[in-house]
Design brief:
The strands form ten sheets. Strands 1, 2, 3, 4, 9, 10 and 11 form a seven-stranded mixed beta sheet that branches. This protein has a five-stranded mixed beta sheet with strand order 29-35-34-31-32. Strands 16-15-19-20 form a four-stranded antiparallel beta sheet, with no helix packed on it. It has four domains: 274 residues, Collagenase (Catalytic Domain) (3-Layer(aba) Sandwich), CATH 3.40.390; 95 residues, Immunoglobulins (Immunoglobulin-like, Sandwich), CATH 2.60.40; 114 residues, Immunoglobulin-like (Sandwich); 61 residues, no CATH class. The chain is 12% helix and 30% strand. By secondary structure, it is of the alpha+beta class. The chain is built from ten helices and 35 strands. A hairpin with a 6-residue loop joins β12 and β13. The chain is globular and about 100 Å long.
């Protein structure tokens, strides 16, 4: 795990008794959007900005003391910590947070509801007096004991001393990181005896590792009352949460300087914090414009009281983009007697389909029994309801699947009601997005041989770009079938299957005759709109060497005016059009709005009329015929005029008859002056 040390870890003796918080800021990954690190986020109007509430759960990692003693700090001390955090982040008048900065509109609450929807104080206590981490070094077994050295600010072992914090977090477990900010209160960090060394550490920005990202702080710098250092004002945890919300130290990435040529990429990458060196005490060390009152410097707690507008924008962007689940978290909502709702909602999004499944998980968040929920789904144009004869006890969940149809992409809103009256309805709603892709469905099926890990495949577009890929199946997956589906959009493609050992799907050819001697029903199959366009299954074909290539074109084209998808513009399409006449696209995302003017009107009807009675220019037939081909076979022995055989790239490969290799072909004939196109598979 990659880490960057963005703090000075020296000067321990001179800082042992100073009110200075040395911290360690860690980074484990690049942000999901790499440009976030290169810019200040767009301006936020904090006068009208929504308050963002962050549910907190404190993990007290103590040494077996009674509550309120030693490292097992009291509930009151934690509560004072939350009060002070809100004073700092909300710039509460008359408090130590009322400084020169801005109100971030970020608030904190102690969780009152657990992930299991049970009442909680938001404080979890873990006895770590026997917590030990062991590792082998130069042949010797070495033990790190929490009781002696606390935790290490690294995830590795050996140096600095202490149980790796990642190991500690994994042992005790955390609450869902999408719904809660986990804070870890520990006895020691790097064996510093609670002195002037590291007082806390945190990752810069949120990470995706389940229990790895929350801030870690010493027990005696949490809160403003209780078992705390003399003069402690809770600024350490304010500082560490700032890191977690993607703020750097004001002196940046360790390169202390009074000059910046680009404030968006240098220093702390925030333009309204002047360039600075590291400051201690309450006076600038070198740079006269330094914000010694900024929470993200190393100055004394008595003078730190400021988050700037730029820092606030950066924090709110991090919360909005990485932890928007806090907005929907129930962590701050107390548990009541009657409370049911939707805990999860997802759409199974079938490729190239307008009918899909909505999977909704209902939950009893309260303490009383709930009965007979009714689910309602709507996308503005369509609505469906489902009555579910069901009894949910406290804490129980139930998953229901509903089929829904939408002509185009849409946001699906859900609502649930129970027979019992509820006072809290915020969790009775859900939302999921359906994205419709109007294309042709390609299905890739591979049943590998014994050495299935040797196989990889990819699908290239016309310009050589990789459209899809798969493979590297688990070894010994013979007789398993791996399936991938996705939409194609009217182009030509090259399907490639690789084998790193150079024996294709043939694990064993003992007599070297080109036929697989051990057949585990291996095959490769491509299906386009339920039509097989390629199949490799014969024992003498399974050993394709290192590379198998198959070229094809997605030729099933859209047909303007064909609303029912039968490849013909006829009566049913006309009736569909009439049923939508006068409808607005803003209320109905309509396929009938051909001209895109927002209304289904006479211009759109004219499209139907102009194409009425015609067939789509798509290849809609598919026949399998023997290798000896002639035109009569294709039309029941009728007398027809033969135009020719073509491959899928449009190249002519034969006339009225002949022997063609196995493969896919287009046959064009003329009957009564009408051109007829058919797709054939020669097996």
């Amino acid at each position: 795990m990659k880490k960057l040390l963005w703090a000075f870890l020296m000067l321990w003796p001179m800082l042992a008794n100073a009110q200075v918080d040395i911290c360690k800021a860690l980074e484990i990954r690049e942000p999901r959007n790499p440009f976030l690190r290169q810019r200040v986020v767009p301006s936020v109007d904090l006068d009208t900005a929504e308050i963002m509430v962050v549910p907190l759960v404190f993990h007290i990692i103590h040494l077996g003391e009674e509550i309120g003693e030693g490292t097992n700090i009291s509930d009151e001390q934690i509560q004072s910590c939350v009060v002070a955090l809100n004073e700092d982040f909300r710039k509460i008048e008359g408090t130590n947070g009322d400084g020169l900065g801005v109100d971030t509109k970020i608030e904190f609450c102690l969780a009152s509801r657990s992930p299991d929807n049970l009442p909680t104080t938001g404080i979890v206590r873990h006895d770590a007096s026997d917590l030990t981490f062991s590792f082998t070094f130069t042949g010797q077994q070495i033990y790190e004991e929490y009781a002696l050295d606390g935790v290490s600010s690294t995830s590795e072992f050996g140096s600095p001393v202490g149980v790796p914090h990642t190991y500690m977090k994994d042992v005790f477990g955390c609450w869902d990181i999408d719904d809660y900010l986990n804070i870890w209160v520990v006895s020691e960090i790097n064996g510093n005896n609670g002195a002037g060394g590291i007082q806390g550490f945190s990752y810069v920005g949120f990470n995706d590792l389940q229990c790895d990202g929350g801030p870690v702080v010493l027990y005696n710098v949490v809160g403003t009352t209780g078992n705390i250092k003399l003069g402690n004002l809770n600024k350490t945890i304010t500082h560490e949460i700032g890191h977690n919300f993607r703020l750097l130290h004001t002196f940046g990435l360790g390169g202390s300087t009074c000059v910046e040529t680009n404030c968006e990429t240098q220093g702390d990458q925030v333009c309204d914090t002047p360039p600075t060196t590291t400051n201690y005490g309450c006076s600038p060390s070198d740079c006269p414009d330094a914000q010694v009152n900024n929470y993200m410097d190393y100055t004394s707690q008595t003078c730190r009281n400021t988050f700037t507008q730029g820092q606030t924008e950066r924090m709110r962007e991090e919360l909005w983009s990485k932890r928007n689940g806090y907005t929907n978290s129930l962590g701050c909502i107390p548990v009541v007697d009657v409370d049911g709702g939707i805990s999860n909602m997802a759409i199974t999004n079938p490729n190239c389909q307008t009918t899909f499944d909505i999977t909704t998980t209902l939950a009893n968040f309260g303490l009383a029994e709930l009965t007979n929920p009714t689910l309602t789904f709507s996308n503005g144009a369509n609505q469906t309801s489902a009555f579910i004869p069901l009894t949910l006890q406290a804490g129980q969940t139930y998953t229901h699947t509903t089929e829904f149809s939408s002509l185009t992409s849409a946001t699906i809103d859900a609502n649930v009601s129970f027979e019992q009256a509820e006072s809290f309805l915020a969790n009775n709603v859900g939302e999921a997005e359906f994205v419709y892709e109007d294309g042709n469905l390609l299905k890739v099926e591979i049943s590998p041989d014994v050495w299935s890990n040797e196989i990889d495949w990819e699908l290239e577009g016309e310009n050589g770009q990789i459209v899809a890929f798969g493979g590297d199946f688990p070894v010994f997956s013979q007789d398993s079938i791996f399936v991938d589906e996705f939409c194609l959009f009217g182009s030509c493609y090259t399907f490639k299957v690789y084998d790193s050992a150079g024996d294709g799907l043939c694990s064993f050819d003992f007599d070297d005759d080109g036929f697989c001697d051990a057949n585990y029903n291996q095959f490769i199959r491509l299906t386009l709109n339920n039509q097989v366009i390629f199949e490799l299954i014969e024992p003498n074909e399974l050993d394709y060497g290192s590379l198998l290539t198959f070229e094809f074109c997605d030729e099933i084209a859209e047909c303007e005016g064909d609303l029912d998808g039968d490849s013909h513009v006829g009566v049913s399409d006309f009736l569909i059009m009439l049923s939508y006449m006068g409808s607005l696209s803003e209320n109905n995302p309509l396929v009938t709005d051909f001209d895109g003017n927002g209304t289904t009107d006479f211009n759109d009807l004219s499209v139907i009329l102009a194409n009425y009675g015609t067939s789509c220019p798509a290849i809609v037939t598919f026949e399998t015929i023997p290798p000896n081909v002639d035109a009569e076979v294709l039309n029941g022995g009728k007398e027809i005029d033969m135009v020719g055989f073509y491959d899928l790239m449009g190249r002519k490969v034969g006339n009225d008859r002949g022997i063609l290799p196995k493969g896919i072909y287009i046959v064009i004939t003329s009957e009564n002056g009408e051109m007829v196109r058919q797709k054939i598979l020669i097996q």
